[in-house]
Amino acid sequence: MLNNRRSFFLRGKWVLIALFFLSLAQGVFAFGGRERAEAPVVIQVTGLVRLVGSATFPELIISDPENTENTWIVAREERAKLNDFQYRTVTVEGEETVTEMTFANGTPAGIRRELRNIRIIAVH
What we know:
By secondary structure, the chain is α+β, with helices and mostly antiparallel strands. 23% of the residues lie in helices and 44% in strands.
């Protein structure tokens, strides 16, 4: 009888410890802010079309040869229009959405420029 009562109290002790730590974890939150996206703006872009990323998450991008910081990610639904022009320079017009990304600890992760509603103007 004594062993059953002792094991019951020991199990209850662990439950109380677990509840204590869960109550402490309730106040923990991710520090990263939400990514902020601006309203889309129609722009004209000239650059090299490339496929980058991994096999599971490929991205089709247009990179500016003069300024390597200017890289636009082609939206997934627009890829079919530019797939045949990989490693060629194109001029396109489309809606640019700029998103400022942050890591979970709040430090800036960079800017993501995405193109939608693409219209091909010229292939060089």
